[in-house]
Amino acid sequence: MSSVLWAPAPGAFQSSNLARFSLANGFDPRDRNPLHYDRALAEKSVFGKLIVQGGVTSGILNALVAEDLPGPGTVFLEVAWKFVKAVGVYEEITGRVEVKKVRPDKPIGKFETSVRNDQGELCLTGTATVFTVPLQGA
User: Fold this and answer.
1) Where are the domains of the chain?
2) Between the CA atoms of 103, 109, 110 and 111, what dihedral angle is there, to the nearest 10 degrees?
3) What parts of the sequence cross the membrane (predicted)?
4) Rg, C-alpha atoms of the chain
5) φ, ψ of residue 46 in degrees (nearest 5)
6) CB 97 within 8 A of CB 129
7) What pLDDT is recorded for position 53?
């Protein structure tokens, strides 16, 4: 089966970009979880650093299925993800999807998904079911 890797642009996980991501995704601007925004407190936590929200980590998979595999017109129908290691602000990550099953009657597929940090450590793992909408004129 096919698989594809994808990484965001360098610097994508800078604090200013994370704040814009939060607003763009409808997160309450009063949600200032210190693990994401307060360096001094976050460094005293079990993580020892500022970490990005889970939606930022999984967002790389949204971009991957919408742009590369299967591609434009693809949406998630179901996801089952485990966040197994926090991603720090300024860390680079790589997303991976691998096709495991495709329905013969509809453009629906089941994928293995993962996100790794720049040390190759697994940060997110799981599965996703996607539907690719046929786009007219695309």
Assistant:
1) 3-132
2) 140
3) none
4) 16
5) -60, -25
6) no
7) 83
Q: Going along 14-107, which residue ranges are E strands?
A: 74-83, 93-102
- Cβ pair 87, 57 in contact under 8 A: yes
Query: What CATH number does the domain located at 3-132 have?
Result: 3.10.129.10
Structure tokens at 122: 């697994």
Answer whether residue 59 shows pLDDT above 90: no
Give the CA angle between residues 52, 62, 108 to the nearest 5°.
145
Residue with the two structure tokens 């790389």: 60
Q: What is the pLDDT of residue 127?
A: 96
Q: Buried (b) or exposed (e) across 103-128, using 16+ Cβ within 10 A?
A: eeeeeebbbebbbbbeeeeebbbbeb
